[in-house]
Every structure is written in structure tokens, then in C-alpha cells.
Amino acid sequence: MDLNGKRVLVTGGAGFLGSHICELLTDEGADPIIPRRVDYDLTEQMAVRRLIETKRPDVVLHLAAEVGGIGANRANPGRYFYANAAMGIHVIEESRRAGVEKLVQVGTVCAYPKFTPVPFKEDDLWNGYPEETNAPYGIAKKSLLVMLQAYREQYDFNGIFVLPVNLYGPRDNFDLESSHVIPALIRKFVTAQEAGDTHVEVWGTGSASREFLYVEDAARAILLATQRYDGPEPVNVGTHHEITIRDLVMLIAGLTGFTGEVRWDTSKPDGQPRRMLDITRAKEYFGFEAEVDLEEGLRRTIAWWREQSSR
Question: Would you list the domain boundaries of the chain?
Fold first, then answer.
């Protein structure tokens, strides 16, 4: 798909991932349309219908989500299920009704079963129940894959589903109440280093592992999928490298210059034991490979946060 001149509706376009994608779309000659939440509540079908009918997009990238780390997921299981399922269902249905050429649905690694064999292969998505703390969010997103496959079969609607691993980078959410692990750790360690604190408290045991994808790589992957992929199968997007939370904490501590003690609060959950994706399909189907390694990505993110927090 040549995006030059296309009207591309990007739900969540003002957010973390969406803002990076909109910059790439502009570079491709597309016209990114970014709906404001105050104007369009995507959990309400008529609001979504009004959005699609008013903006008349050729392509829809559905990135909008209500999401957070382990603590936020535990506090909002009902809200996260409803909001993410409702938004996706309405956006997909109203896009179909309006004759949108293509829809890209961004899923989540949280959709995978808790004990998925590593590396996670897309065919393993249905082989068990997700990790309990984020299951409502993960299942809500996974249901949209089923919807897209059903709509392709019945209506010949061109909707694709991509599954990014945990993202991080500049413009991420650094609110300690709702952020994911990397921005939370960066904020904690930068604050402690600047204040001269003697220790930092971290959740869990540090034994769980995660894979992290720099946001600019993720944006490029979604752009490539939009341009080059038209199939029904879900596609993982990641780096194929994992790191334990303990090693991640030590790496961030070192990069921020913190030299004090790290205290582990083992009463808090670790979440899913391991996460690392098989990324064969992404390379084969639309030629994506990550370019920014974790240490370089963390350096850029720490520098961005120091600049923001000093304002």
C-alpha cells in the first residue's frame, strides 16, 4: 500500500507510540488524523461512527488503549477489559461499515498464556490462560484478533493484527501509578540519584524476564505492516532478546549513575515469568528487524526524561 496522499486515522495518535507513528506517516506523504479523546469517546459506538463518517479515513490504525503496569492492571481489571474490548469492537465495525481500505489493530504481548514456551510463537496464543494480573486486558485485545479474522472471512475486510512486545522510549508514561516497568525504574533511579538517596525499592524478586522494543522501532514496524502485510495471521513485533528484571534494574541504575542499595519488595508480584517473542513472521511478512539495542535505547530514554523532569 502506497500511503502517499492517504487519510490515515490514528486512534491514540497523540500518545506514546502513536506520536512516533504519525511522524513516520507524515514522512510518507500521508495525512494522519488524530482524534481527541475529549471529542470522541471510543468506548461509545455512536461517537466512533461520527468520527469515521466525519473524517472519512482510507486507513485506520487502532492504537488507543487503556493500559498500565502490574499495579494499574490489578486495580482496574473491569475497566481495562471493557474499555479495550469496546473501543476495538466499535472501531473495527464502523471501519467496515464505512468501507475503510485497511485497518491495523495493535495487540499486546499480554494476550499470551502465562506459561507460553519461549520464544512465544503466534500459534501458541490460544494454548492457555494469560498471566492473571493482566488477563482482562490481554483477553480483550485477543478477542479483536478473532473479530478481524471473522470479518475477513465474512466481509472480506482487510484488517491485520500485530503483537508488539513491551515498548519503551521517549514520550512514554512516567507516572509511577500507571507506568510500565522501564519508565517507572528510570524515574525512580533518576530521582534517587539526583536527591542523593541511599536506596531504591523495586517490586518483585527480579527473576522474571522481559523483552523490550524501542518505540521508534515499533513505529517503523507498524508502518511496514501497514504498507506490506495483508494476511489474517497475527504477527509478533520484537527484538528476540530477553533480560531479567534484576539485570534490567542494575543496568538502569548504572546508566543513571545511582550507586546506592536496591531493595526488592518480594511481597509484590513478578507478573508473567518470561517473555520473549519469535519474530520470524515479522521479518518474513514485512521485512522488519529492530535496530536500537536495549542499552542505547535506555540511554536515549533516560536523557529524554532528565530533560523533561528538569523543566
Answer: 7-169+212-240+275-292
